[in-house]
Design a protein that fits this description.
Blueprint: E1 10-17, E2 22-27, E3 31-34, H1 42-45, H2 56-73
Parallel strand pairs: 1-3
Antiparallel strand pairs: 1-2
Length: 74
């Protein structure tokens, strides 16, 4: 193995989530900040959040209806 080419490995690296959960893992970084973890992820918690910003679903349905009307008129 070549010397002085590998990054320093931290056995007790602190990982902090935006929800406040903290984990200690091994990493090449001393501290890691993540936005989502197993404590707050919807898949693991069962809380599914549907974000509909500016009525995107309604806009899609309106475009779909307009497209089907044009096809049936032909």
């Amino acid at each position: 193995m070549k010397k002085d080419i590998h990054p320093k490995f931290y056995d007790k690296s602190e990982t902090t989530c935006a929800c406040g959960a903290k984990y200690t893992i091994g990493s090449t970084k001393e501290a890691i900040a993540v936005e989502i973890c197993a404590v707050c992820h919807p898949f693991y918690t069962g809380n599914d959040k549907v974000l509909d910003t500016a009525g995107r679903v309604e806009k899609f349905k309106a475009r779909k209806e307009a497209g089907t009307k044009k096809k049936s008129a032909k």
